[in-house]
Specification:
The protein is an alpha/beta fold. The protein has helices at about 45-55, 110-115, and strands at about 35-40, 55-65, 70-75, 80-85, 100-105, 125, 130-135, 145-150. The protein is globular.
Length: about 150
């Protein structure tokens, strides 16, 4: 899968420099869009390298202030991204403490094979009553679960 979207590496001077994204979901009254999940890591560069190698797009990599770094990555096809950061006290958690975030896939064997081909150690698929799961971890031990529900199209 090719992704030609650029990674934002500079902080805009003003809101006027931010181009609208016609592909973004609208934020309608009453909606709560989950779009960013902080992932606690020891080394932002190592974690970014892991997720990019796993096929995730690096959307943002900026240093908006001294001692602050924000890296945002998005799994293929997802509307929700992850945040790797330093210097943001309000999102600090012990590295490796995130557990069991689910990535829903259409074909769990193909998704597992793709991640393995990219160097990710993914556990064998388990059938838990017609829902299929396969787990993996990032370098810090944050855990992820591939999930396939055959009835979901």
């Amino acid at each position: 899968m090719s992704d030609d979207r650029p990674t934002q590496t500079s902080v805009p001077a003003s809101a006027d420099e931010i181009m609208p994204d016609p592909t973004a979901d609208p934020v309608l009254p009453g909606n709560y869009l989950l779009e960013l999940i902080p992932v606690p890591v020891t080394d932002v560069d190592q974690a970014k390298q892991f997720y990019v190698a796993a096929g995730w797009h690096a959307d943002v990599d900026v240093t908006p202030a001294e001692g602050v770094r924000i890296v945002q990555l998005t799994p293929p096809g997802s509307h929700c991204s992850i945040l790797l950061s330093t210097g943001l006290n309000n999102v600090e958690m012990p590295p490796g403490s995130l557990r069991g975030l689910h990535l829903v896939v259409a074909d769990i064997e193909a998704a597992r094979d793709d991640l393995i081909a990219r160097g990710v150690d993914v556990e064998p698929v388990q059938d838990l009553g017609g829902v299929f799961y396969a787990a993996f971890s990032d370098p810090d031990g944050n855990t992820w679960t591939l999930q396939h529900m055959p009835w979901r199209q």
